[in-house]
Amino acid sequence: MTKIILDCDPGHDDAIAMLLAWGNPDIELLGVTTVAGNQTLEKVTTNARALATVGSITGVPFAAGASRPLVGPQLIPEEIHGDSGLDGPQLPAPGVELDSRHAIQLIADIVAEQPDKSVTLVPTGSLTNVALFARTYPELVERVAGVTLMGGGHHTGNMTPAAEFNILADPEAAQIVFEAQWPVTMVGLDVTHKVLATPDRMEQLKKVNTDVSQFIAELVEFFGGSYMKERRYPGPPMHDPLAVAAVADPLILTTVRAPIQVETKGEFTRGQTVVDLRRTWNPDQAEDPSALGIADDYEADAHGVRHCVGIDVDADRFWDLLTSALTRIGTTNFRG
Q1: What are the tens digits of pLDDT across the range 109-150?
Q2: Helix (H/G/I), strand (E/B), else coil: 258
Q3: pTM for the full predicted model
Q4: Please, which residues have CB within 8 angstroms of residue 240's CB and are 6 or more apart in sequence?
Q5: DSSP secondary structure string, 43-72?
Q6: Which listed residue (81, 102, 154, 239) is catalytic?
Q7: Using CA atoms in the order 201, 235, 274, 298, what is the torsion angle rounded to 10 degrees?
Q8: Is 239 one of the annotated active-site residues of the chain?
Q9: Domains and CATH numbers, the chain
């Protein structure tokens, strides 16, 4: 079982990610932290606590974190997630009390209390909290098993031609996270855009036939409408749930090792994740890099690269994982 801390900004896809983390038997959800992103910190924190009611999430501390990026004003994609950050279905009252600790303190306490390299951080919003944790508690960075984040992409953006929202929301924080001495797996647009909540996939979820699966269907209805209007997609991408799924089942995602830098100064490319794919090695494809036509000296270099980039996804496996998690959560009667 993989222990995770979910750092999020609900957000429709964050909501699904949280329910997936709670319902998956291979994940132990140790904490939920919130960060300003899809809406203000106050709104996304209220949404996160309401989702605890939806999923009957208990015994998990929830803590609020950074209310703005490290540099500059907050960027809010209201056209995608609405005024509340989670427009669409009626949300129940928050089901958990907010922990008195700041998010980065909660992360630090959990990482310090758990065995060395047993906790994976899964940020699905801007990387402000994770960057602040790395800078405030540098002695704990190497105790973290790794960071699996939703953000970026190696060939395109969504908020600009070059930049994905979570990275653009705080590029300076993202660069800190990629520079820290921990393994980072980037679950970017290159793979999340291959996992769309199309009508046939939603029929698969509706067959679970619980109030929680119905709630997700209502989320996707609003989220999908926004994506159709803004991006002309046949269904909204499951950005954030894919990051959680990649931790729960590593076979869902195909990755390659590649160095990643974040552009923080470019006039047209601020927030771009610059992925060096010139000499990539996928250890799942061959034990011997030379079999892939890669220079002999890269085998040693590859082991020093801390970054992995998602390049492909098993969409069927993802949807089966989500369906199984919702089935496991069952009916919670959150609507009374």
Answers
A1: 999 999 999 999 999 999 999 999 999 999 999 999 999 999
A2: coil
A3: 0.92
A4: 8, 11, 13, 14, 16, 17, 124, 150
A5: HHHHHHHHHHHHHT--S--EEE--SS-SSS
A6: 239
A7: 20
A8: yes
A9: 2-329 (3.90.245.10)
